[in-house]
Amino acid sequence: MTKEKIQDAIYTRRYVYNFHYHLIWATKYRHQTFSTKELADEMKDILRMVAKDNEIVIEKMEVMPDHVHVLVSIPPRISVASFMDI
């Protein structure tokens, strides 16, 4: 007997999950820190590297001059609070 797989769920040896978190970081005092394309691209590269190292899936990401939006899927073994400390 085979069970149907859940669409968009992530399957591992231990669990099946489909967690999505919309996280927003704002710069201190809303300073325009990411004002150039180069700085925004560097921030995206850093976030991708951290996500890859921690087996986190970035579904969408947008870097604005004074804040960053990220939609991520985090494995259940990592709490959102500990992800924010990474």
Describe, in plain words, how this protein is organized in 3D.
With 86 residues, the protein is α+β, with helices and mostly antiparallel strands. The protein is 27% helix and 28% strand. The chain has helices at 37-53, 80-85; strands spanning 10-11, 16-17, 21-26, 57-63, 67-73. The strands form two sheets. It has a three-stranded antiparallel β-sheet, covered by helices on one side. A hairpin with a 4-residue loop joins strand 1 and strand 2 (16-17). The longest helix is centred in the middle third of the chain and has 17 residues, at 37-53.
Properties at a glance:
alpha+beta, about 90 residues, elongated, two-stranded antiparallel ribbon, three-stranded antiparallel beta sheet, 2 helices, single chain
Major beta sheet summary: 3 strands, antiparallel
**Uncertain segments:** none
Q: State the end-to-end CA separation.
A: 41 Å
- The computed structural class is alpha+beta
Helical coverage, percent range: 25-40%
Write the layout of secondary structure elements.
Blueprint: E1 10-11, E2 16-17, E3 21-26, H1 37-53, E4 57-63, E5 67-73, H2 80-85
Antiparallel strand pairs: 1-2, 3-5, 4-5
